[in-house]
Amino acid sequence: MDKLELKERILKGENLHTEFKESLPDNETLAKSIVCFTNTDGGQLVIGISDSGDIVGVGDLDEAMRKIDDIAFNRCEPSIGILQETVDMDGVIVLIINIPKGEQRPYRTKSGKFYIRSGNRCRQASWQEVRRLYQTSESIFYDENPISKASPGNLDMGYFRTFLENCLDISPEESLIENYLENLKVITHDKKPTLAGILFFGENPQRFIPYAKIIAAYIPGMDVSIPPFDRKDLEGKISDILENSLKFLRLYLKEEHRIKGFEPELYPELPIEVLREGIVNAIAHRDYTISASIRIFIFEDRIEIRTPGKLPNSVSIENMRTSIHVLRNPIIYNFLNKMGMVTDVGSGVPRMIKIIRERLNKEIKLNATETEFILSIPRMQGGKR
Predict the structure, then answer these.
(1) Is the pLDDT of residue 255 over 90?
(2) Are 103 and 181 in the same domain?
(3) What is the pTM of this model?
(4) Is the distance from CB of 44 to CB of 1 less than 8 angstroms?
């Protein structure tokens, strides 16, 4: 950073990526500031600037730099690699600490606390946010987390055996069932059902994960502000939710009868494979750390499938269109794959785009916000060809 850039930073004030300190703080406060940046998006800690923007500089520069290196290495867990630089502001030296976005998130201070930046301030992270940091760095996957209040007795073992027989072609002896539960990560080594295990094989998944459902609504118009004509909370195992979602969609999507030979044939307004792909993608890729449900809105001109959470790391709308495939919930995805509901090549979005172009000569819309991903599937005008 040069002199001009520093002056511009001072004028702009503190933000997500910039924090000013008039003097070198105590060890814990400095560790907290470094951890905040590396757990969020990286940034720069500027020492020698007062809260009012006055340039006061750093006194014993060598001692300050040694102390900062020691804090980043010994009082942050894991250790954080920082880069220090100085800026000469007309004889007054300002110290810049460049802190990268961490590759081993979440980081914590030696006291065991996790911090993140929120706007221009640093605050302690909630447990949910810590879980999300683990997930984004792929240190753990959230769908393999144990559900503390659940036990193997809350699993539908008959359904699990049917899954083994029909999807894996396995007919295990009773003594081996527990091994399959652990190996497939339905339960942990401590015999606790995982989130994925409860969602797929739980007798009542919403007892433990109440937001793991789909809210479906038919809206007689084109705007979400219009009161819904019909609304359903679709619950149960994932297979039940998928089946009931398609049933709800069929209630409000038109079907055309055509005579071929001597028998009538039904042609749905929208291809079922597109609707199924959209719902399965939402179930497979949603962020389960967020206490919100998947929502399906049937409008007069489109179907919207709204999935909670931002896109996973490195995924963008552009590369989704070209089959980029990043798993947020690999166990959930694996079960869906074994059940024949997804392919393992990331071709779902391109396939949906291709089918809608060919059948309707229209475009699917993809939109990613800070809180959800929205898939918009166009309908035929008035539900007719």
Answers:
(1) no
(2) no
(3) 0.66
(4) yes
* Per-residue pLDDT tens digits for 274-333: 999 999 999 998 988 888 999 999 999 999 999 998 887 667 788 778 766 677 888 999
Kindly report the number of other CB atoms within 10 A of residue 214's CB atom. 22
Domain containing residue 245: CATH number: 3.30.565.60
My answer on whether 127 and 173 are in the same domain is no
Say yes or no: 332 and 360 in one domain. Answer: yes
Q: Do 62 and 199 fall into the same domain?
A: no
Average pLDDT over residues 159-188: 92
- Range(s) of the domain holding residue 103: 3-137
Same domain, 121 and 147: no
Which of 79, 108, 137 marks a domain boundary?
A: 137
More confident residue, 320 or 78: 78
Give me the number of domains the chain comprises.
3
As a three-state string, the secondary structure of the chain is CCHHHHHHHHHHCCECCEEEECCCCCHHHHHHHHHHHHHCCCEEEEECECCCCCECCCCCHHHHHHHHHHHHHHCEECCCCCEEEEEEECCEEEEEEEECCCCCCCCEECCCCEEEEECCEEEECCHHHHHHHHHHCCCCCHHHCECCCCCHHHECHHHHHHHHHHHCCCCCCHHHHHHHHHHCCCECCCCCEEHHHHHHHECCHHHHCCCCCEEEEECCCCCCCCCCCEEEEECCCHHHHHHHHHHHHHHHCCEEEEEECCEEEEEECCCHHHHHHHHHHHHHHCCCCCCCCEEEEECCCEEEEEEECCCCCCCCHHHHCCCCCCCCCHHHHHHHHHCCCCCCCCCHHHHHHHHHHHHHCCCCEEEECCCEEEEEEECCHHHCC
In terms of domains, do 329 and 186 share one? no
